[in-house]
Amino acid sequence: MTRGPAIVLASSSPYRREILERLGLGFDWESPEFDETPLPGESPRDLVRRLAEGKAAAVGKNHPSALVIGADQVAVLKGEVIGKPADHADAVRQLRAASGDSTTLFCGVAVLNTASGRMRTAVETVEVRCREIADAEIERYLATDRPYDCCGSLKVEGLGIALLASIRSDDPNAITGLPVIRLLELLRGEGVALP
Q1: Greatest CA separation found in the chain?
Q2: pTM, entire model
Q3: What are the pLDDT tens digits along the chain (195 aa)?
Q4: How large is the angle between the packed helices 88-98 and 135-145, nearest 10 degrees?
Q5: Are 38 and 81 in contact (CB under 8 A)?
């Protein structure tokens, strides 16, 4: 489907790889080595933009004539920035806090054209509202889906969707960590032929 430079995904996420595979984009992937520590006072929007750009730049050093895609996602719940759970207890804590409340996901995506040095970025937000969730439901969900590699412990590709009351976003794929509509805009801007 693509014409032009190689496409490289700067991510080890199997979810992001699966999305690109479904789109029929021929691509390689490489796990980026990049410090994801938030900067003091950095907003969630600025954080995901910086992380997406930083991951693309880190992997881009190894690919001198490619389009490198970087992405990241953070969740904000009750004013607290949360990421992937540290362990089972942290996942339970995240889901109890989300029960009956809204979480905002900030999803950053960047496309670096390593030949020109041009970096294109976008940030999409997703409002996720959880229904009231009983502790037994949380435990059953964690045992079934094991969402320990998912931001906010929400894995909507499986049983996690049953925990939700609503999702609001201009880009429905953004909830999985890759805002596809925005990504395709960025790739078109770099001359990639898409349907």
Answers
A1: 53
A2: 0.90
A3: 445 689 999 998 888 999 999 988 889 999 999 998 999 999 999 999 999 999 999 999 999 999 999 999 999 999 999 888 999 999 999 999 999 999 999 999 999 999 999 999 999 999 999 999 999 999 999 999 999 998 899 888 889 999 999 999 999 889 988 999 999 999 999 999 886
A4: 130
A5: yes
Q: Which residue has the tokens 């006072």?
A: 41
- Dihedrals phi, psi of 191, to nearest 5 degrees: 90, 10
Q: Which residues are catalytic?
A: 72
- Secondary structure (3-state) at 11: coil
Q: Cα separations (Å) of 33 from 12, 36, 57, 175?
A: 10, 9, 10, 24
The residue ranges of DSSP E strands in 131-172, in sequence order, are 164-168
Which residue ranges form the domains of the chain, and what is each CATH number? Answer: 6-189 (3.90.950.10)
Q: What's the CA gap between 73 and 124, in Å, rounded? A: 10
Closest CA to 133 of 91, 98, 157: 98
Distances (CA, A) of 159 to 28, 56, 153, 163: 29, 31, 12, 8
The end-to-end CA distance of the chain, in Å, is 8
Q: Which residue has the tokens 């339970």?
A: 92
